[in-house]
Amino acid sequence: MRSYLECIPCFMSQALRAARIAQLDDEQTLKLLRIVGGKIKDIQLSDPPPKTGKMIYSLVAEISGKRDPYEEVKREHIEFALKMLPFMEGYIRDAPDPVDAAMRVAAAGNIIDLGARKTVENVQKVLEDALTLKHRRWDIDQLKSVLADAGKILVLGDNAGETVFDFAMMKTLRRVYPEAEIFFSVRGGPTINDATYEDAVRSRIDEVATIISTGSDAPGILMDEVSAEFLEIFNSADVVISKGQGNYETLNDAPRPIFFVMTVKCEVVARHLNLPEGSSVLYFHPGGNPSERMTD
Amino acid sequence: MRSYLECIPCFMSQALRAARIAQLDDEQTLKLLRIVGGKIKDIQLSDPPPKTGKMIYSLVAEISGKRDPYEEVKREHIEFALKMLPFMEGYIRDAPDPVDAAMRVAAAGNIIDLGARKTVENVQKVLEDALTLKHRRWDIDQLKSVLADAGKILVLGDNAGETVFDFAMMKTLRRVYPEAEIFFSVRGGPTINDATYEDAVRSRIDEVATIISTGSDAPGILMDEVSAEFLEIFNSADVVISKGQGNYETLNDAPRPIFFVMTVKCEVVARHLNLPEGSSVLYFHPGGNPSERMTD
Description:
Two copies of one chain form a homodimer.
Chain A: H1 7-21, H2 26-39, H3 49-64, H4 71-94, H5 98-111, H6 120-132, E1 137-138, H7 140-147, E2 152-156, H8 162-176, E3 181-186, H9 197-202, E4 210-213, H10 228-236, E5 239-243, H11 245-251, E6 258-263, H12 267-273, E7 280-285, H13 292-295
Helix pairs in contact in A: 1-2, 1-3, 2-3, 4-5, 4-8, 5-8
């Protein structure tokens, strides 16, 4: 997905939010906003938003002087989510359709903004709400039909913390489809609160899947940046389940079929999907619609 | 009021919104956002936000090639508001306290975002809602006590359209306090949808007040830009009633008493006033608290 004019003020808002989470002081934050402002002239609207996101988060790291300014925040989110794991697993166990329930848990992980919650109790309440949501688009039948014959499943990870929800989801897939090999992708380096290898291990993902790196520290999947190893698995997987909006923004016109599981967090993506902002979806993209960028 | 870090992304959002209202095409809008982005490095946080607002709206005018890119929008808003005038006047006539009712009408004018409404019926409904609002801060008794002895009243105007609400308010003041002379200030030149001389006349304000110019085209009252004539009236008026957030942002620490009538439209001003965003207020600022800027 290209960037839109609306993305430009949003990049500035993202920079400010990132500065706050990384606990930059006011002077550092002003410096960041000034640099990002000056770089707006270089943004190509033909590029997907995570390309600019990557630039912003590199600057946050540089200005903060920390390799991973979100390390502590991510660790907290994972700890929070691990405390909710028994609830998630109970929900899946008690559900009439465990695969559907597992995907709902994975979607709930993307709905919940752990950064904004203060207590596990709150998050459990929000999780309950998320799980009872009527989804406007929920392509579970298509997903189950391809999972039935899948030898190789690739899950594209998103935020740290959400990874624990993905652990519960993949644990279920392993149980229901024991023949399938599952891969889980993490970012090649720290970027915002996106999961890295360490975050995935902390979320116990190594127990249920082979963790692979995208080879890029963009908060999405930029095809001209990912490693050959990632690309091989991406292309050969029988099923790709993509978590979150950053991965959607970079893969929405991918040539291969993808199941997007995410919450729609801005008006631009809402317009793209023709769904209201705030919707949580399991959206089947059939592929076969390569953009110029993808076929380069 | 100084600018805060949160104002910086907001300036970009304002630029985009301004471009839309001025009907710039996508290429012109991108150009605007790039220029504004580059100018972020020059923004002094010690300056009040309307100083940056002025810069943005000058750029919109320059890029659009129109002296007043909002002319048509302002005219529509005034026409809309004039159709609601009988309702406003009826509301004031039927109220037990006409001055209180008149100030509520003036506040409603700032609540209503005429740009977002499509029909007069809608606006009338919103006006009814606005008038029944429980105000969190409503210093009407202080206002009435100074109005009782006032020889000279200055109303600082804000948006075109809102001016019709101000007309109804000032018409009431003239009736209740026939001895007082009323002045109404407009911007020295077009800036956003702020009222200029022509807009005020279209709103019939010349029937109830002497229209004066601030002498500056900032969307607020920048003391180092206003004309000597304006300053003389501002300093000598017995009562100053200031409409809208832009005037508050530039006058919140003025050395003289001011009654601010406005809706709190952002978190920064909400924090400043210690009132929730969206509040509509009649706020008495007693003065005697000059900032460095004001005493320069």
